[in-house]
Amino acid sequence: MSVNPDQTDNLLKKGIEAAEKGYIHSAQVFLGQVAEERNSPELQSYLAYCQAKGQGRMAAAAKICRETIQRDPNNPTHYLILGRILLLSGDKARAIDAFRQGLKSGSDDRIVIEISRLGLRRPPVIRSLQRNHPLNRWLGKLLGRIGLRG
């Protein structure tokens, strides 16, 4: 199927909008049509996100995003998508790292929104112990429940 460049750009825009709104199947259809005509790092990042969110293939999707970052390291969108994929896989710490790297590579309001959704972590209750130490975790939960950790 041969599509003119304007149609390809329009399909790419629709695919990205659909992915951003959470319409993963529609995004895959639009982006798949674009992939037949061109191959760009941004397209690959969004296809990877659709793969992760729609099919649960987190490791493969994260690998694709890391490759797109190597190809286009100054585009914060790739870090945004990688961070979202890492969040889907439950790796919050690495997701935050990806978001922060994205902000270093350029300004993107979507990254700021993602970081603000995650919220800031409070310091450990007992600072001399590691954050994930059972005593810190237990005390943090207890103090949070009784309202002394606000």
List keywords for this structure.
Serine Threonine Protein Phosphatase 5, Tetratricopeptide repeat, 150 residues, single chain, 8 helices
Describe the structure.
With 150 residues, the protein is mostly helical. It has 2 domains: 5-119, Serine Threonine Protein Phosphatase 5, Tetratricopeptide repeat (Alpha Horseshoe), CATH 1.25.40; 123-150, no CATH class. Helix content is 71%, strand content 0%. The protein is built from 8 helices and no strands. The chain has helices at 5-21, 24-35, 41-55, 58-71, 76-88, 92-105, 109-118, 134-145. Helix 4 (58-71) runs antiparallel to helix 5. The chain starts with a helix and ends in a 5-residue tail after the last helix. The mean pLDDT is 90.
Short summary:
With 150 residues, the protein is mostly helical. It is 71% helix and 0% strand. The chain folds into two domains: 5-119, Serine Threonine Protein Phosphatase 5, Tetratricopeptide repeat (Alpha Horseshoe); 123-150, no CATH class.
